[in-house]
Write a structure and sequence with these properties.
Blueprint lengths: L1 E7 L1 H4 L6 H11 L4 E8 L3 H9 L7 E5 L10 H9 L3 E3 L1 H13 L6 H5 L2 E3 L3 E3 L8 E6 L2 E6 L3 H19 L4 E9 L4 H7 L1 H5 L5 E8 L2 E10 L2 H18 L4 E4 L4 H12 L3 E5 L5 H7 L8 E6 L3 H6 L5 H7 L4 H15 L3 E7 L14 E7 L4 E7 L4 H20 L5
Parallel strand pairs: 1-2, 1-3, 3-8, 13-14, 13-15
Antiparallel strand pairs: 4-5, 6-7, 7-8, 9-11, 9-12, 10-11, 15-16, 16-17
């Protein structure tokens, strides 16, 4: 089954609202085997709604629309749909009773705008809105289904979950889609593709591979399509096992894993603690670590030692090392890792020092040069990276790389 998504609202087109509805719907529908073939955002204008419906792909089996079902004058979706199908808006008594009960429950009073929401195109099937006043509508057109839902995210999500997914699932039997994401760290997309060239050429035809790069992480997404879910899972798992044998040192997680959560779970399991000393990453690693609930169990604290003065005064890094080798050096970053671990009496530590950019680089140390160190009681390991010339990306990549180095140290893997 193939579907299109149409989101309605000027607020999306002018950038005041981010269209999170489409991403959420696409994810949920894909899990039941529905392929999203196009996503369109359009204006709050009747002619745009009608044009969007006219332009629906011949390949689409389902059209999902969100937005424009509220009680105000700029909510024109119902009127547009009625015009498109050449029908009248008629009062639906069941919807009206639901709106009345909804309004009364909130100790408010019915008005003409509330009543207006109970007028719906006479040819639609009603989709009940359990948590709002705007009813959903289902239309049959040219062997397709068109479904119109509220744009309010929590109302749309409830409608999709309780009504639309069960409806579409009945028609979807025999068409399964399985996704598996493998997170890699330590090789750029081009290098990864080179390493996996032979493996990729032998993937079964019904399994596709996508490379999804982000700062510091390249996600490999395997997608299998077929009729037997158990068999697809078995085939996906076989491909994952082959990847684990090919690039064991590059894989850092799966699916929705986050390195900060993986590291936190490892520290908890070992009953160990962590501290951070950050220069170029400016506290980003500490922020990632503490974004995980319960991180106070293993994170003792961190220092943003941005200047040489703080590195020497607070962390007690040798002034001689800073003068002889520079703040962005193996000697200084390793000393930062050792000193912060001693200062916070933690079992593990992470330290970063680099030139995030866009200025500050030299011939010997260009923008993007970054040293990262991880340490425990018996080991200090540091590595140098040349990350690029974009400041924000450098900070993100350095932070992710540092967390992955820490994960490897915790697992006694080669760094």
């Amino acid at each position: 089954m193939k579907a299109e998504i149409i989101t309605i609202g000027d607020e999306i087109l002018i950038g005041h609202t981010t269209d999170t509805n489409s991403a959420w719907m696409a994810n949920k529908l894909n899990l039941i085997g529905v392929d999203i073939i196009r996503i369109t955002s359009i204006s709050d204008k009747k002619e745009e709604v009608i044009k969007a419906i006219d332009n629906v792909s011949e390949n689409a089996d389902v059209v999902l629309m969100t937005g424009g079902l509220g009680p105000t004058n700029d909510d024109i979706t119902k009127e547009s749909l009625a015009d498109y199908f050449g029908v009248k808006l008629v009062l639906n008594e069941a919807v009206l009773r639901h709106i009345e009960q909804f309004v009364i429950k909130r100790k408010a009073f019915m008005n003409d705008r509330n009543i207006k929401q109970a007028y719906l195109p006479e040819n639609c099937e009603i989709i009940h809105n359990k948590i709002g006043t705007a009813a959903g509508m289902l239309f049959h057109m040219n062997n397709k289904i068109l479904i119109s839902m509220p744009g309010v995210p929590y109302e749309m999500k409830e409608m999709i979950t309780s009504e639309i997914i069960p409806l579409l699932s009945k028609q979807q039997k025999g068409n399964e889609i399985i996704h598996k994401a493998i997170l890699t760290q330590g090789a750029p997309e081009s290098k990864l593709a080179e390493l996996l060239e032979d493996w990729e050429s032998n993937i079964p035809k019904h399994i596709s591979l996508a490379y999804l790069p982000s700062p510091g992480i390249v996600k490999l997404r395997l997608t299998a399509r077929g009729s037997k879910k158990a068999l697809l899972n078995e085939q996906i798992n076989k491909q994952v096992q082959e990847l684990q044998a090919l690039i064991p040192n590059l894989i850092c997680g799966f699916d929705a894993d986050r390195l900060e959560e993986i590291v936190g779970n490892l520290l908890k399991a070992k009953k160990m603690t962590l501290s951070t000393a950050e220069s170029c990453t400016g506290g980003t690693i500490a922020k990632l670590i503490t974004s995980i609930p319960g991180s106070s169990e293993y994170f003792t604290g961190g220092i943003v030692a941005y200047t040489n003065n703080i590195k020497s005064k607070i962390l007690a890094v040798s002034k001689r090392n800073i003068e002889d080798y520079g703040a962005v050096s193996k000697q200084v970053v390793e000393e930062m890792a050792v000193r912060v671990r001693d200062l916070y009496k933690s079992n593990y530590s992470v330290a970063t020092s680099g030139i995030a950019g866009p200025s500050g680089g030299t011939k010997d140390k260009p923008v993007g040069t970054t040293w990262i160190a991880v340490a425990n009681e018996s080991t200090v390991i540091s590595k140098k990276f040349i990350l690029g010339d974009q400041r924000e990306r450098n900070i993100q990549r350095a932070s992710v790389t540092a967390l992955n180095m820490l994960q490897k140290l915790l697992l006694n893997k080669e760094i």
